[in-house]
Task: structure prediction
Amino acid sequence: MPATGIATRTTLRRGLVAAALPLLIGALASCGYGSQADEPADKGDKTANAATDGKKLSASEVRIGYFPNLTHATALVGLQEGLIQKELGGTTIKPQSFNAGPSEIEALNGGSLDIGFIGPSPSINAYVKSKGTNLRIVSGSASGGVKLVVNPDKIKTLDDLKGKKIATPQKGNTQDVAFLNWISEKGWTVDPESGKGDVSVVRTDNKVTPDAFKQGSIDGAWVPEPTASKLVSDGGSVLLDETALWPDKKFVITNVIVSQKFLKEHPDVVEAVLTGTVKTNEWINANPDRAKASANAKLQAESGKALDAKVIDPAWPSIAITDDPLATTLRTQSEWAVKAKLIEQPDLVGIYDLRLLNKVLKAAGKPEVADAGLGAK
Result:
C-alpha cells in the first residue's frame, strides 16, 4: 500500500492535471489533433491496469488467449492500446499467449481460458471432438496473411514443388489443410498422416521454420505472417499468396472463440470484449502505420525483440482486419479437411453465435455479419 504522503501528492498531481486538461485539449485541437479515429483510448500495454469507467460486469476477470502472430493483430493491438480493457471497466483481462491451436483449445477445455483468438481448423477440430459442446465462434478477426515462400534456386514455378520438401506449421492446422487441398487439386497425392508423397509436407513449428529454411532442410513453406516475410528476408521468394485462391480474395485466418460455459454465464463480459475488438479493428484500419507499430511493440514485449522493418513492412498489408468471421470460408476449409481425410464429415451447425457481435455492430452503425447457416439456435 502507498504511504499517506505519496497518496496526497498523487491526489494533488491529479488535480493539477485535471485543471490543465481543458487547455491541453484546446491546444491539440488547434493543431488538428484529437480525432477519435486517430487516437486510441489508451497508450501502452494496459491489459492489467487500464482506468475503468465504473462498469460493473458479471465477472471480475476474463482470461483471453492469443498467438504472438501478426494474424492476431486485433489481440495484439487491442491489448497494447487498452482498447479492449476500456470496454470491460472493472473486469480485468488476464492475457495468455500460446504458440499453437491445440494448446489454446486444451486451456479452453480445461477451464483456464475463457476467450481466444485462433484459426479456423483448430476451432473446427475442437468443436467436432467435443460434439459441439465446448466452444462458439463469436467474431472474426483477420483474413489472409498466408503465403507459399520457396527457395528460388530450387523452385521457380508451382510445378517445381513436386518432389520438394515444403513446411506447414502443424498437421491439420489451417495452413496444412490448405496446402494439402492445393496439392490434391494439382493431381498429386500425399499421405495426410505422414506427409509423404509427391510433395514432402514437413510439419514444422513456425519458430523453427526460418532456421530449417536457411539450413536447406526444407525447400519452402506454406505459412502465415510474419514467418512468410522472415523467409523472404532470408532469401526466399513468394510463389503464391493464398488470397489468390479464394473468391473475393478473402478467407478467415483468425476467429474469436469463447467457451460455451463462459458465454452462458457472462454474456455481458463477452459483449464488452466484442465491443473492444470492433473498436480495435476500426482503429487498426483507420491507422495502419500506428497499428503496425503497436502490434510490433506488443510482440517485443512478448519475445524481447521487435520484428525488423524488412519483415513487418511487407507482412502487415497482406493481412486484412475484419469483424466478419467469413463463415462460408470456414465451411470450405472443413470440406478440405474431410477431403484430405484429416477429419470425418462434421456437423458444424451451432459452431457460430454471432448475436452479440451483431448487436455491437448494429449499435456502432455497421452492417451485421452472417453465419452461413451454422449458427446456434
In short: The chain is about 40% helix and 15% strand. The first strand starts at residue 61 and ends at 66. Residues 1-38, 41-52 have pLDDT under 50 and may be disordered.
